[in-house]
Amino acid sequence: MMTNGVVHANVFGIKDWVTPYKMALLVLIGELGRAGPHLSLLERRRLNRLLLPLLQGPDMTLSRLIKAIEECCPHLASSVQIRIKLMAGGELKDMEQFFDDLSEAFSGTEPEVHKTSVVGLFLRHMILAYNKLSFSQVYKLYTALQQYFQNDEKTRKMEKDEFDGPLREEEISCNGPLSQKQAEYFLSQQASLLKNDETKALSPASLQKELNSLLKFNPDFAEAHYLSYLNGLRVQDVFSSTHSLLHYFDRLILTGAESKSNGDEGCGRSLRYAALNLAALHCRFGHYQQAELALQEAIRIAQESNDHVCLQHCLSWLYILEQKRSDSCVLLEHSVKKAVYFGLPYLASLGIQSLVQQRAFAGKTANKLMGALKDSDLLHWKHSLSELIDISIAQKTAIWRLYGRSTMALQQAQMLLSMNSLEAVNVGVQQNNTESFAVVLCHLAELHAEQGYFTAASEILKHLKERFPPNSQHAQLWMLFDQKIQFDRAMNDGKYHVAGSLVAGITALNSTEGVYRKAILLKAQNQMSEAHKLLQKLLIHCQKIKNTEMVISVLLSIAELYWRSLCHTIALPVLLQALALSQEYRLQYLASETILNLAFSQLILGIPEQALSILHMAIEPILAHGAVLDKGAAIFLVAKCQVASAASYPPQKKTEALESAILNLNEAKTYFAKVDCKEQLRDVLYLQARLFHSLGKAQERNQCAMLFRQLHQELPARGVPLINAFK
Fold it and tell me: pTM for the whole thing?
């Protein structure tokens, strides 16, 4: 059988065979040996670095090969092209003489090539493969070389006459079968890229095309089926990924690869790990019933074989499937102890990470959680578990965000971004294109947006889009954060129609977040009854799934609805419930925000002095770690309380209190302007104008009144008293 100049009897039956491309590499090696003394040190380094991927990689067109050589050494590229042209335009005996001369590279006391070197082994393989060819096969190889050179001539002519653009896909891709070494190198390279830098890997469609080509010549190539499974996961294709995973384990059993390495247990080992991987696949796609059935099968086979390692993996997945149950924490603690006992540091560390996450949601103190993460970090560094080091830092970032400590979260995020991976990757490959980095960058973008640095946030999101393209597996993370930031900006700017168009996108990525944003939008549009119904449904759902953070946010929004409906006394029990929850689960920032809402309730109920006293309990964390909008709202509330309290003061003290309030309003105005929050700016200007009028400062009053009028015409009133709202 002969395909595209490749002479072979059985695909992957031999390690290597002769192709026109490999003959071109032989010419390159020969010319490199002759030109060696005349090459500069830099040129030799470049050529040596180029040679290894050329030897290991798939066949390429002659034009691409010559172009790669030209980038390292132009005159050597010209010599290679001339030599190939002479061989292709000559007679068959010229090719015969070329292979006879190859063995001279090993002769002499100081040979040009050592037999055991990478280049030496390649030369010996080619010489042996050529010597095994029959005369008819040698003639077919010669005609294939001529065709290889003629195709290059046509390509060069077309590029010169018609266009000067990138090569077509059919010129780049490998047509025809690869040798075993080339196939293994291609698969390992693409698998490494999928893990470390997905943007450098082939696109899902192109990679699947190459894999189908490989499997066409060797359907039993198990590793190709596994890479096809990984490729299916990239595009969330449950059918093709399941199909490829099952074929992978079928081929392992049929080819006997597992039996050779694991004795009689090989077949059983493949079966139990096939069931375990199938359970993980179903769990990833949310098919929990199918995942549980596959996991039960894996546990049964592992118990029969007394495979404790497999059982430990099964126990970890069992926790993931049952983590909503009340006894899942006990199951996880048992899993960690067993993993340590059987010497499985990776599983033990993942278990500790899951325990920390679970206890963070349960309201444990930050010092205990960080202590547990410190112990797991020691495990990571001891065993050089680079991926888990990244996960641990991303976990710390998320925990500090949960507890409302944005400064600490920012520090952890910067730490991860400045780290270098412990894993060896190829030059030009991003070292850390993992989920941890996507999470940290998303948090970083949100932190910048909260502080009003929208340009910086946009740059981070742009980097995320380049690093994790829309078809990559972690793209949904930045998509959600991007939509949320755009929604908040539209709401601040009063562009409710823009915010409404973003709700659908947020809901598609996170249904709970989408419903909450829809309720916020309805509330801003004065559709109080619809917003209240939506928030009540969301409250029941969040209480059921134990999403405490969202429960508190929903309670605060319900309290605001009561204010706007002038039901201030009904809002108090709701706020007290939110405060109890935030303190129980140690969500300090939400607790501070709830106290601000309680202070506003007291202001509305006519006890501003009491409101001012409790404001001091909450305003410090807000100013230290809060978003710019929250800082402005807190300072604005202080000014309102000062104005209300000044009503009972003597004239001198009243004037001082009003002037102090004006200073606070100026500070609040600066915060609101930073995030372009026009509604709050309008309210601040309204109150400032009233205060300047009371102090008899007509010029300042008129200035504020003019600015207020401009904003009021741009933003129609909401149908409620202007300053009768906390935010």
Answer: 0.76
* β-pairing verdict for 2-3 and 6-7: antiparallel
3-class secondary structure per residue, 515-554: HHHHHHHHHHCCCHHHHHHHHHHHHHHHHHHCCHHHHHHH
Q: Give me the pLDDT at residue 115, please.
A: 81
Question: Hey, where are the domains in the chain?
Answer: 20-156, 627-726
Six-digit token string for 527: 């559709």
Q: What pLDDT is attached to residue 422?
A: 47
Which of these, 293, 297, 333, lies nearest to 316 by C-alpha position? 333
Q: Which residues pair with residue 503 across a beta bridge?
A: none
Buried b (16+ CB within 10 A) or exposed e, 554-587: bbbbbbbbbbbeeebeebbebbebbbebbeebbb
Q: Residues 355, 332: contact at Cβ < 8 Å?
A: yes
Sorted by sequence, the CB contacts under 8 Å of residue 693 that are 6+ apart come out as 701
Cα→Cα distances 460→7, 421, 450, 516, Å: 51, 20, 14, 25
> What is the 3-state secondary structure of 377-411?
HHHHHHHCCHHHHHHHHHHHHHHHHHCCCHHHHHH
Extract the residue ranges of the chain whose pLDDT is less than 50. Answer: 1-14, 161-175, 259-264, 422, 424-430, 719-724
pLDDT tens column, 663-680: 999 999 999 999 888 888
Return the SS3 of 342: coil
SS3 605: coil
Q: How many CB atoms lie within 10 A of CB 624?
A: 14
Spatial separation of the C-alpha atoms in residues 125 and 122, rounded to whole Å: 5
By C-alpha distance, which of 265, 191, 201 is closest to 226? 191
Q: Give 272-275's long-range contacts (Cβ < 8 A, gap of 24+).
A: 272/298, 272/301, 272/302, 272/305, 272/307, 272/310, 273/249, 273/298, 273/310, 274/245, 274/246, 274/249, 275/301
Q: Please, where are the H alpha helices in 235-344?
A: 238-255, 257-262, 266-284, 288-305, 308-321, 328-341
Write out the DSSP string of 642-685. HHHHGGGS-HHHHHHHHHHHHHHHHHHHHHHHHTT-HHHHHHHH
Give the separation between CA 600 and CA 401, rounded to whole angstroms: 25
328-335: which pairs have CB atoms within 8 A and are 24 or more residues apart? Answer: 328/358, 329/355, 329/358, 332/358
pLDDT tens across 101-152, in order? 887 777 766 677 788 888 888 888 888 888 888 888 888 888 888 888 888 7
What is residue 8's predicted lDDT score, i.e. its pLDDT? 41
Kindly give, in sequence order, each residue whose CB lies less than 8 Å from that of residue 304, ignoring residues fewer than 6 positions away.
268
**In angstroms, what CA-CA distances link 263 with 267, 268, 270, 305?**
9, 10, 12, 13
What tokens appear for 626 in the block?
């809060």
The answer to whether 640 and 603 have CB atoms below 8 angstroms apart is yes
Instruction: Provide the 3-class DSSP secondary structure of residue 371.
Output: helix
CA 671 – CA 639 distance, rounded (Å): 14
Distance of CA 463 to the CA centre of its chain: 11
Q: How far apart are CA 726 and CA 494, in angstroms?
A: 17
- Rounded CA-CA distance 643/651 in Å is 13
CA end-to-end span of the chain: 77
Whole-angstrom distance, CA of residue 95 vs CA of residue 76: 20
**539, 557 contact by CB (below 8 A):** no
The percentage of residues in the chain with a pLDDT greater than 90, rounded to a whole number, is 31
